[in-house]
């Protein structure tokens, strides 16, 4: 016979006011479970697995740790790392004209805080610069500041990353205006976009001496075919065809109105890491990459001797992340790690070398666009740039091949970037050149306008 508990209002009131141990344990356990679920959910929301490709939360957490002193030493975030490479510009409150112009170079004080920059670089006044040529009185090097909007001539040296495959020895010197690029929006190299889209092609003349397959110098790593040539042979072409300054009548270049762009190393790093090209032996990465950079900068001094005063160099992109080396099915996958290491060391030597060369050539403006940091940023956040895929380089729709650039693919083939990527690179290079320009840095500024 079961026992039935009789109900009474007084006993119910007593249980509510003085709950049993069993009820108390249940309540405490429930609170802990709820708190645990809440903490787990919070951590999951901030984890990389739930934020997908975006690492914006990581940047926020990193900044928070820095402020609170928590955790170990935090590595600078990709975004900050890239942004800090650009010279700063005046805020809208800093009007007038700089009395002491900022140092616009790779050695600039990009990381100065606002107070220091205002004190040292932007002691503003309404006076004009002392002459039209923008020569800064009191500058010990008597360096003429670079100005991209006023640049009238552009020479490009490099490999297939930059080439238009022109042969000026065979075809002769032209006026530097590529009519076929004017008004064009797709299927161009990054240097073409820089000329035809981001500058005024009515003003800028453009000669592209870059060659497919070119390396830096025969003595370090020869090109695959003799016809590909090297940086040295491209300088020989320039010297024979465009000098002495001002060159042929249709060129008429001057030191202060001409930019020289030098982009090499992709073919060198590919050949460096292929043992079959070196009689089965493995070349030493450190000594070879140093020799490559030393040769690149030494030959750039040849251009300086011929009159060049404005230079733009580029680091190498992370080649090991291109399909050729990253994808298991591609020919370079077996040397993926060696390519990663050689590019890392090449870029380290180049960054230091450009700074040292600028100190040596104190009458010249040497700029470095860090393509490696930019491309890492694009590969990490492709959505921010409108890029759809960073690995595959072909797409077939209804049996036909659409334009890969229009489809937002980062690569056109297993190692060359698509035109949509080339346009993004040109846009970023244009921004760097403008940030280095006297029209922004040295001009008279109001709250709403620069007047150069």
UniProtKB/TrEMBL annotation:
The keyword Glycosyltransferase does not apply. The chain crosses the membrane at residues 23-41. GO terms for molecular function: hydrolase activity, acting on ester bonds. Residues 48-77, 93-116 are annotated as: Disordered. The keyword Transmembrane applies. Pfam families: Lipase_GDSL. Keywords: Hydrolase, Membrane, Transmembrane, Transmembrane helix. Residues 48-57 have a biased composition (Polar residues). It comes from the Eukaryota. Residues 63-77 have a biased composition (Basic and acidic residues). This is SGNH hydrolase-type esterase domain-containing protein.
